[in-house]
Amino acid sequence: DAGVIQSPRHEVTEMGQEVTLRCKPISGHDYLFWYRQTMMRGLELLIYFNNNVPIDDSGMPEDRFSAKMPNASFSTLKIQPSEPRDSAVYFCASSPDRWGRGLLDEQFFGPGTRLTVL
Amino acid sequence: AQRVTQPEKLLSVFKGAPVELKCNYSYSGSPELFWYVQYSRQRLQLLLRHISRESIKGFTADLNKGETSFHLKKPFAQEEDSAMYYCALRGSNYQLIWGAGTKLIIKP
């Protein structure tokens, strides 16, 4: 397994443009997480899904951010319109649900997408 | 409030010297704590969890409930230990609450 796959690895865009980040979780994992990493705020959970259903999106900063998981092997995080303060590294992670442990299992991270909004 | 504090953004030690990466937490229940590591050009990955009481790559971490700490230690640092280290706490809603991270640099 290639692990969690994210694309693109780097994205540079101009303020006001729409940005779409993509994630393919590890096959068989039931949970998918989107994180944002900045120097100022560290690693922040934005939203997570269980079996493709969004469970908690309280970390999504504002309505400009949206996330979907149309099937078990694909998720997107969209920012529309983007702003310079959205510049960060965005990580996707997935986790299995072994033995009904739910959120208690280890999270496996993707390589991240470095977003720069000019 | 549920919080994880890593007071050092950067820690630099010489090869062969002892290493201690500090982590303090705030949690009202029985905590479950983790250390994750990100080596250069690699993914963030689990290093160890307190519940396993394991030693990974020579690192150990002991939960001290009295001091609400979960410091990561290694008696003799190696150059390959240079990385970003994150302490994380399992919150009451089972999600991970992350510290800000400490960049560890091992000098030759």
Labels describing this entry:
heterodimer, A: 118 residues, mainly beta, seven-stranded mixed β-sheet, four-stranded antiparallel β-sheet, 0% helix, 53% strand, globular, B: 108 residues, six-stranded mixed β-sheet, three-stranded antiparallel β-sheet, 11 strands
Q: Explain this structure to me?
A:
The complex is a heterodimer of chains A (118) and B (108). Chain A has no helices and eleven strands. The radius of gyration of chain A is 14 Å and the shape is globular. By secondary structure, chain A is an all-beta fold. In chain A, the strands form two sheets. In chain A, strands 2, 4, 5, 6, 9, 10 and 11 form a seven-stranded mixed sheet that branches. A four-stranded antiparallel sheet of chain A has the order 1-3-8-7, with no helix packed on it. Chain B has 108 residues and is mainly beta. Helix content of chain B is 0%, strand content 44%. The termini of chain B are far apart. The chains are: A mainly beta (118), B mainly beta (108). Chains A and B meet through β5 and β10 of A and β6 of B.
Helix-strand layout with pairing:
The complex is a heterodimer of chains A (118) and B (108).
Chain A: E1 5-7, E2 10-13, E3 19-24, E4 31-38, E5 42-50, E6 53-56, E7 65-71, E8 74-79, E9 88-95, E10 108-109, E11 113-117
Parallel strand pairs in A: 2-11
Antiparallel strand pairs in A: 1-3, 3-8, 4-5, 4-9, 5-6, 7-8, 9-10, 9-11
Chain B: E1 3-5, E2 10-14, E3 19-21, E4 24-26, E5 33-38, E6 45-49, E7 60-61, E8 72-74, E9 83-90, E10 96-98, E11 102-107
